[in-house]
């Protein structure tokens, strides 16, 4: 029997079934009513009946949520990529050197995250000393440019690096003071900002980047021990994959073909790698050193795409689908397909 959802009888029938089945939820209420009746716009009506039920409201109170504070100025003010940067270490990871029968040694990955565009830069470091971090910082500055502010936690290596950079800056100021030619030049030093101790929530942006990297890296590599060249290749290509992820979903306009990614702020487009053939079906013992690293990257990208698409399928009806090419290069945002409901 077809019932109109605005008729009072329809609402009385829904309330009867709701109480009959011991205050059933929305989905069960719809299923039970449809065994005999077919109300129009039944989902809105079921939601209204459950919401207006006094017993259901009292037994499921709404918990007050703490209001979120305003984002820091570094997160909301427009700036070039990596001008405002956050840094963190993750690891340890185990590597070995080819041709040697030595035990595996530890290494770490330093992750630099742009606070404005969420772009990622990764460097493999040998240990957690101040010198290793300064070397990674020099390589980062040589590739991405010198940042004005670096935000990090109160790790020992970060504090030591800040101390040495402060001495270097003071020494540079003294040299400039002695020379009249460069007296009018302004000194551009890197400012370190440390978050409060034992408060990782202040660094949620780089903590999320560390989680994304470690999740995909460990799911793909597992307990295998890579060489330095292999792990360096995988880390850099994984950084390209993270820099090619969409920051926001596309609109419902079918003319929008490209999603905004961190790669647009770095190179004006999503980052891509050198094409390589599909190595998923070839046994690992038949692959050369370079082919093994490419196989690891292909597994990372395939698992990342499956996880990312599944996340959006649950809440968004249409996003930019980043196609997986035959060469399994990092994503190229150029096609937009509707996802199944």
Q: Can I get a quick summary?
A:
Helix content is 42%, strand content 14%. With 341 residues, it is of the alpha/beta class.
Judging by the overall fold, what is the CATH architecture of the largest domain? 2-Layer Sandwich
Mean pLDDT: 76
- Shape type: elongated
Beta-strand proportion: 5-15%
Sequence stretches where pLDDT stays below 50 over 5 or more residues: 177-187, 315-341
- Specify the CATH homologous superfamily of the largest domain: Ribonuclease H-like superfamily/Ribonuclease H
Using the coordinates above, name the CATH class of the largest domain.
Alpha Beta
- Determine the fraction of residues in helical runs and give it as a percent range: 40-55%
Helix and strand string, N-terminal first?
EHHEHHHEEEHEHEHEHHHEE
Main sheet properties: 6 strands, mixed
Radius of gyration: 27 Å
- What structural category characterises the helix and strand content? alpha/beta
